[in-house]
Amino acid sequence: MSATSESIGRMIRDARTSRDWSQKRLAEELGTAQSAVHRIEAGQQNLSLSMINRLAEALEMPLIQTATQGSMNFEIQGPTTLSGEIDVRTSKNAAMAVLCASLLNHGRTVLRGIARIEEVDRINEVLTSIGVKLTWIGEGNDLEIIRPEHLKPDHIDERAARRTRSILMFLGPLLHEFDDFKLPYAGGCDLGARTVHPHMSALSKMGLTVTATDRNYQAKVVRDVSDARQITLIERGDTVTENAIMAAARTPGVTTLRNASGNYMVQDLCFFLERLGVRIDGIGTTTLTIHGVETINTDVEYYISEDPIEAMSLLTAGIVTRSEITVRRCPVEFLDVEFAVLDEMGQVFEFSEEYTSHNGKTRLVDVTVKPSDLHAPLDKIHPMPFPGLNIDNLPFFAVICATATGQSVIYDWVYDNRAIHLSKLSELGANIQLMDAHRLLIIGPTAWRGRQIDSPPALRPAVCVLLAALAARGTTNLMDVYVINRGYEDLPHRLNKLGANINVFWGDPPTDD
Which residues form the HTH cro/C1-type domain (predicted)? Predict the structure, then answer.
């Protein structure tokens, strides 16, 4: 027995009409746009868990929750040839950082164009639980944030907090508010041992000490009263850099942060803090100088910039299906090395002139990928800190190399398990050998074939399996896709607009009966 997007949509439509509600009325109850309700009822919207719960509550219809119990799954019919144009949406990782940074501001914050994804829903549940008022406004992708005078971390939603690693980025903002507080252990993707030690090392220079208990991080703060401080990060990580920036933003005086990440989400955070009156020198470099302020009380609107990882996902969809598509609004500064590697492999592109994102800072281009005969790269493909090849874009080269002629090596030196998760591509026909926990040997080209497969428990490998399934002959049932919904907004419907054939279902795979 299974439920599909279409059957759920009909159920919602019938429940709405039985209450004599318009689509506009239901949209108001859900805090979303009327167009989103129309897509939901037409079976063209990928429903998140939080949206399912909101629908059931608004319509007083627990049957919706019953029908969608168990995992959400994708049925993918292939092989697919895509065509058309698609826009890159805003960055999940930047949104998470800026949402956490909104706690620094006692004024009204409006974030424009924020993604409606599971990861954002989880952090919003955490924010709401500690007293922050959140309201979706506009067309349902703008978020108004009003924090209370006093936050309540002792009321934190532990279940939501444990499902997102971004909870770690509450340390930087909260150390300004409390002498002691606790946070639940961080969750997120299964990518092996992702130590929190770099966070503790950096924040200790700001007076924060953390003790790990059975279920929580117990934090204590001794105020730093010096006029200047220098911090060298022991790891050039994105979230540790963001945490240190947020800690420095409201610590009066000058903080010099060395070995900092210059990656896209860090830059977005810095641009946002600049709008709040915090001066930051060296944005995009490995040395940041933050001129902290004691208080922030500013009404601010900020546009999150476009996501280079989603851009790479969409470009990969065109590459592996040998299609011609145009991916608009690609943040080129964070894709330069990826384009250089693909060019070396024989991929043909066309680029538009550059233009600027809504944040007034990020450089964008429209990129058209052409069907190309790829060959394996001469050297291994490996990530590096910005401005190198992005660690989160590395997995897409596994599926790309599987379509190329020759022998490729993917070296993921950062995560312990991701190479293991990527080896799941072999279940769709790829010739992949796991050399060790960090290295894959891939021999192409691949004759992809569809089958039923469990989604890997990590976001990018899971999307790679989905993209390979687009090129596969026959039907692929990709089971339990929650991890994809954590990082992508309505990906099946958006790919379907380009010509893909992806259906969402709950329960057992659909049959022809």
Answer: 12-66
Q: What is the 3-state secondary structure (H, E, C) of 144-200?
A: EEECCCCCCHHHCCHHHHCCCHHHHHHHHHHCCCCCEEEEECCCCCCCCCCCCHHHH
pTM equals 0.90
The residue with greater pLDDT, 395 or 199, is: 395
Strand partners, 327: 86, 367
- Total domains in the chain come to 3
Domain, as residue range, for 450: 73-89+306-506
368 and 447 housed in the same domain = yes
Tokens of 66: 């019953």
The angle that helices 34-41 and 5-18 make with each other, rounded to 10 degrees, is: 120
The Cα diameter of the chain in Å comes to: 73
| Residue 125 covered by a domain | yes
- CATH number of the domain enclosing 462: 3.65.10.10
Which pLDDT tens digit goes with each residue over 326-381? 999 999 999 999 999 999 999 999 999 999 999 999 999 999 999 999 999 999 99
451 and 435, same structural domain? yes
> Which strands form 287-292's sheet, in the order they lie side by side?
228-232, 253-258, 287-292, 279-281
Together in a domain, 148 and 199: yes
**From residue 317, how far is each of 191, 360, 467, 484 by CA, in Å?**
23, 29, 6, 15
Q: Is residue 407 situated within a structural domain?
A: yes
Inside any domain, residue 513? no
Instruction: DSSP letter for 456, please.
Output: P
Let me know whether 208 and 97 are in one domain. Answer: yes
DSSP 298-315: --EEEEPPB-HHHHHHHH
321 shares a domain with 268: no
How far is 421 from 117, CA to CA, in rounded Å? 22
Residue 219 makes CB contacts below 8 A (sequence gap 6+) with 171, 174, 175, 178, 180, 181, 182, 183, 208, 209, 210
Q: Are residues 407 and 298 in the same domain?
A: no
- Surface-to-core class of residue 24, CB atoms within 10 Å of its CB (0-12 exposed, 13-18 middle, 19+ buried): exposed
Q: What are phi and psi of 302, to 5 degrees?
A: -145, 135
pLDDT band at 190 (very low <50, low <70, confident <90, very high): very low
434: amino acid identity, one letter: L
318 and 454 together in one domain = yes
Residues 123 and 9 in one domain: no
Identify residue 228 by its one-letter amino acid code.
Answer: A
Cβ atoms of residues 443 and 430 within 8 Å: no
Neighbours of 288 (CB within 10 A): 24
CA distance 305 to 267: 10
Q: Are strands 452-454 and 474-479 parallel, antiparallel or unpaired?
A: parallel
Question: Which residue, of 250, 276, 303, is where some domain finishes?
Answer: 303
